[in-house]
Write a structure and sequence with these properties.
A 5-stranded mixed β-sheet has the order 4-3-2-1-5. By secondary structure, it is of the alpha+beta class. The chain has 3 helices and 5 strands; from the N terminus they run E-E-E-E-H-E-H-H. It has helices spanning 56-64, 71-79, 98-136, and strands at 3-12, 15-24, 35-40, 52-54, 68-69.
């Protein structure tokens, strides 16, 4: 039985409240669990002590039984220094995908072509206009 330490959602619509539970990984998110290990209320301010409450003795027990914490629960445990902090840098975050880079390159090529086309007649046009102005006078 693969055990997970994860969040089970409770509360009403737009007012979430989570229980930290030890559950079989095959069970539904809010379904059957083995033991309730704590609570998490995201509506409270970040500095509030009531925001995250954990039963550390039982969490240590389940970690000893090879239960895997989810990413969010890992962050809670890192905050109280139970688990070693993992580097969670998303190096690809913010870099555009392949299609976006292709679009940017196409746009740059079109802009360069338009600038060249605009610059070439602009250089020739003043040369043509000056003799016409002289003859008009």
């Amino acid at each position: 039985m693969a055990m997970k330490i994860r969040l089970a959602r409770g509360g009403s619509k737009k007012r979430p409240h989570y229980s930290v539970v030890a559950a079989d990984s095959r069970m539904a998110r809010d379904g059957r669990f083995v033991e309730k290990l704590g609570t998490y209320n995201p509506l409270l301010p970040k500095d509030s002590e009531e925001r995250v409450k954990l039963n550390m003795e039982r969490i240590q027990y389940w970690l000893g039984e090879a239960a895997q914490p989810t990413d969010r629960v890992c962050r809670f445990l890192e905050a109280v220094a139970v688990l070693a902090k993992k580097d969670s840098a998303n190096l690809k975050k913010g870099t555009p995908g392949k299609k976006a880079t292709d679009r940017v390159e196409e746009k740059a090529a079109k802009a360069a072509a338009a600038a060249e086309a605009a610059a070439a007649p602009a250089e020739e046009a003043p040369a043509e206009e000056t003799p016409a102005e002289e003859t008009a006078e």
